[in-house]
Amino acid sequence: MSFRRDFISKPIFAFARGAMPAMSDTEREALEAGDVWWDADLFTGNPDWSKLLAVAPAMLTEEEKAFLNGPVDELCAMLDEWKINWEWRDLPPEAWSFIKRHKFFGMIIPKEFGGLGFSPYAHSEVVRKLSSRSLTAAVTVMVPNSLGPGELLMRFGTKEQQDRWLPRLAEGADIPCFGLTSPEAGSDAASMVDTGIICKGNFEGKEVIGLRLNWHKRYITLGPVSTLLGLAFKAYDPDHLVGQQEELGITVALIPTHLPGVEIGRRHLPAMQMFQNGPNWGRDVFIPMDYIIGGQERLGQGWKMLMTALAAGRGISLPSLSAAGAAYAARTTGAYARIREQFGISIGKFEGIEEPLARIAGTAYLLDAARRLTCAALNQGHHPAIISGIMKLHATERMRIVIDDAMDIHGGKAVIDGPQNYMGSLYRAVPVGITVEGANILTRNLIVFGQGAIRAHPFLLDEMNALGEADRPKGLEAFDKAFWRHVGHSFKTMFRAWGRSWTFGLFAPAPDAGEATRFYRQLSRYSAGFALCADMALLTLGGALKRKEMLSARFGDILSELYLLSAALKRWQDEGRQKEDFAALEWCMATGFRTIENRFAEILANLPNRFVAVILKFLIQPFGARVLGPSDRIVHQCAQLVLEPSAARDRLTSGLSAVDDDGGIARLEKAFRLVTAADDVAKQMRAARLHDWKEAVKKGVITQAQGEKLQAAHEAVAKVIEVDDFAPEALSPIYSEGADVHQFFQELGEQRAAS
């Protein structure tokens, strides 16, 4: 007999068991999908930095490097984003053939099934490079390698299914898509009305037990050209042909699109991006049971299967595209700000430009650091569901910010569309990334902290499992152990958070990391404060916390910042502590610390239990939020990273497509090289108060060769500043070729006046 268990834990167990809200099947399956990794360390309040620094950086094999420098570059050379979006409305046929022939759709499929067998990092690098050339191509390639039939077959398919379908997917004989979203169910997949009724039917001349499917899906990428549809639906067994249960739950199956009853709809047009996307329907489509991914035994397990696959895929594709977008914005906007002059000086010298430029450069550094760290975890076999959610949410949201900044700095150059506009397509595509693979609003308000608190907390999941145990004595025993370990942990966390906060992290644990050591100390401090506040919120609110979405979102923001800043520190260490990059790291830390402190202040101001809020404020934030963000010095130094040619600029923007043509990017890069090379000549001209280089040559201020160098730079800049224009008939069928537009409008005005 245990006195503690029977007289203290037992009444707490009874109360908590009655108070714990019911958990839906989809919630439980989402919690069980994937695993935890560095996020669990952050939740302890005392992260082990040696564990993080010991993680092997994500690296490419020689074969993967050859693919990036060979087929990927060749594919990039085939792509013209303006023509894809505004003339062809699709990838050109030769690009489709090339993608299939070189197995771009089979990057994640093992070699034994004819795929490339690439690592998650190689997959990420391919998406990164393609994204900097054509978003249509990037999305086309990323989808079959993310959430789709291939991933699900590899994880859950039967041997027969794998042998049959994976080789066809790898070689492009089948083009896959996955149907999850329906008009009635977007983020709330449990409300889908797509059904599969278990019954007997004829299939290929034989009577078999199978499912009769009816569905309506929309927003399905590759749907209009798909030959193999992965489908999510709710399975029912009204005649009890496979068991006693009637409602079996969400199930996933393979549907060859040539089957009778399958209807492929016309194309959607997602924000003027021309990747194939559209709706589809199924009307009384009959499939045998062995078309269920994993076979009959996987009936009803579809949601868990999908969440498990998404736990990995969501951490690769869209974060890679977003990190590429940020790096692309840094490279192009830095170059443009350097060559564009206003009031006689480069606009990059204006502090008003430096601030958004530093934000672009710092964000590019941060996102790629987090991308690499997440890929390192995936390379090691982890499937960190919460981290994948953080990555998708924050990568796409921060991409939105930096692309807006890039548009502001470019001004009219990025507003006027045409073949020379290298920003317009990316700007239009931003909402697509934010919307797909889990809406960001839902992810921020419900998932990052809501699921993270249960999965990554050292004891909470054990306590919840004990409370849900059908065998009460067994549940009480497990609860007693987990609960008191939790109590001990909370007291340690309280004293740890108190001490670190009042000493401003001076004695918090940190590795010897040179100039960055102080940043580790602050993250150790904030991690302890986060763990304490999370415990107190869970204690005082219990299950009601999941309805406090704004509080949950703020906790999620802190957890996200802790992860992203950890990644930035890891990148700094892995790259050899490059002194030139330190300004970007400082910017990331100052910006992240400001967000963390502001979120703490907001949590403490809004926590319903005011007594606990006052105690927490005394312990972790007695002087309020004190970090103001990056100083003007840091902003200036961070902006300089992209304003001059340097190894630091190349590191910040590595892995992007470098296809050389006469497009807008090539013109920009040429002008950037010429302007920076002629900088000394330009300074001599300004010092002499001369504007005409020929006059400067006559006066002996510069040489003829220097003058010609300056002239070449001016001409190159003029080519960049040019924007596209079009003949009226090229934009509208209203006008015939050679028509007098002015006369047309004059006649139109006369007609209106007469009427």
Q: Give Rg in angstroms.
A: 29 Å
Low-confidence stretches: none
Structural class per helix/strand content?
alpha+beta
Mean pLDDT: 91
How many separate helices? 32
End-to-end separation: 99 Å
Portion of residues in beta strands equals: 5-15%
Q: How much helix is in the residues?
A: 55-70%
Major sheet description: 7 strands, mixed
Report the principal-axis shape: globular
Strand tally: 9
Protein name: Acyl-coenzyme A dehydrogenase
Family: Belongs to the acyl-CoA dehydrogenase family.
GO biological process, one term: fatty acid beta-oxidation using acyl-CoA dehydrogenase
Domain Acyl-CoA dehydrogenase C-terminal bacterial-type: 454-726
Features:
58% helix; globular; Butyryl-CoA Dehydrogenase, subunit A, domain 3; two-stranded antiparallel sheet; 755 residues; 7-stranded mixed sheet; 9 strands; alpha+beta
Description of the structure:
Pathway: Lipid metabolism; fatty acid beta-oxidation. One of its GO terms (molecular function) is flavin adenine dinucleotide binding. Belongs to the acyl-CoA dehydrogenase family. It is a single chain. It is globular and about 100 Å long. The protein is built from 32 helices and nine strands. It is 58% helix and 9% strand. The longest helix is centred in the middle third of the chain and has 31 residues, at 472-502. With 755 residues, the chain is an alpha+beta fold. Strands 1, 2, 3, 4, 5, 6 and 7 form a seven-stranded mixed β-sheet that branches. Strand 8 (341-342) and strand 9 form a beta hairpin.
